[in-house]
Amino acid sequence: MKTTIEQQGNATLIYLTPWEWIPNSELPVIVYPRAFSDAKPGIKDRVAKRLQTSGWGNTWVAGIYPYPHYHSNTHEVLVILNGHCTVQLGGPEGYDLEAGTGDVIVLPAGTGHACYTQSDYRVFGAYPGGRSWDLITGAAEHREPDNLPVPEQDPLGERGILRQAWARVTATAP
């Protein structure tokens, strides 16, 4: 499995190739390190307000499933509220992303992810337009990701690069 990493301003773009039953995406995973400061109190409320303002809903607070999975019918944003974790992107032979408090991870539909971290951490998750999500956990359930539009807004609003980064890829697709 091939992983390509590119820096674009305050964001890291991670391009993943398919792995067995996990399709991944031509769109890059976008990581915004320390997008939310943990020095200010109320990170959960600040994250909730920012995502709601940006049109990302159907929220939850928990951990990331400890097994490879993907969502074929929606993109997803993960914001680390507290602690540290290693998020495996792309599948078992994918990229291990070290994430900590305040980091934002935007996953395009079809991107495999799992977290095997045993430490105490919490994640705030949301979906563009408040979409419902499916859960694909193995080859028997495999399906290609839906052909979804680029979300209307980056989860970070105006300071994010999602629309530019993802539009650039979709514009060059065959």
Descriptive account of the structure:
It is a single chain. By secondary structure, the chain is mainly beta. The chain has one domain (3-172): Sandwich (Jelly Rolls), CATH 2.60.120.10. It is built from two helices and ten strands, in the order βββαβββββββα. The strands form two sheets. It has a seven-stranded antiparallel β-sheet with strand order 1-2-3-8-5-10-4, covered by helices on one side. A three-stranded antiparallel β-sheet has the order 7-6-9, with no helix packed on it. The longest helix is centred in the N-terminal third of the chain and has 11 residues, at 43-53. It is globular. The model has no long low-confidence stretch (mean pLDDT 93).
Helix and strand sequence: EEEHEEEEEEEH
Counting helices, strands and paired strands, the structural category is mainly beta
Q: Strand order, main sheet: write it out.
A: 1-2-3-8-5-10-4
How many domain regions? 1
Rounded average pLDDT = 93
Name given to the CATH homologous superfamily: Jelly Rolls
Biggest pleated-sheet summary: 7 strands, antiparallel
Helix amount, in percent? Answer: 10-25%
The CATH class assignment is Mainly Beta
Low-confidence spans: pLDDT under 50, at least 5 residues?
none
Strand content: 25-35%
CATH architecture: Sandwich
Distance between the termini: 22 Å
Quick one: overall form? globular
Number of helices: 2
CATH fold-level label: Jelly Rolls
How many beta-strand elements?
A: 10
- Gyration radius from CA atoms, angstroms: 15 Å
